[in-house]
Write the structure tokens for this entry.
Amino acid sequence: MNPSRNEQELLDLLKTAIIEIDGEKAKDAVQQILAAGINPRRAVDYSIKEAADAVGRKFDCGDLFLAHLVMVGDLMDEVSAMLEKHIPPDQQSRKSTIVIATVQGDVHNVGKNLVSVVLRAAGFQVHDMGVDVPSSTIIQKAKEVKADMIALSSLLTTTMPYQKEVIDDLASMGLREKFKVMIGGGPVTRDYAIKIGAEGYGRDAFEAAEEAKRLLVS
């Protein structure tokens, strides 16, 4: 059933507020949506996801920068929490969980941070472990949060073998089938991902998000 004009207007109002990173306007739109009796699940599935796609396109075109994406991600988290409190338990869907880290020996974080923000915007629950993280620590965190995926960033050719180390360690621990692994970073290629047995590869943050959707949602 097509939404009423009022419902669509309110959903679009929320979407626009998120794109404009207007926190007060976004929260007011949420309150109006709830007061109008609109299914909050629809607001999550339409307004927030449409806003995330629009922001991604703006970033791709150079109209937004990393700082903007971080602010959008924080606002979407806040708005989602407000809406999800009003979604009945039987309508709530579990968010796929991703543990992300820059591998041991590598302290580059800009690319990894961007991937984290875009994954959150795409609806995933993301645990960002930072940089220079040993394989054992990454795996322990993935077990602890019952992750669906481990995402590994490497910006140096000398640290790329640590991406493979995580996969090898998972196999030796009998955990390889529990987690999808996606890799990325400047020198990393899809051929390398295939070679070391990773299920996914992201050339950039937005390709990584699409890859995560393919592996975890499709």
Residues 97-216 form a domain with the Rossmann fold fold (CATH 3.40.50.280). The longest helix spans residues 40-60. The chain has two domains: 5-91, 97-216. The chain has a mean pLDDT of 90.
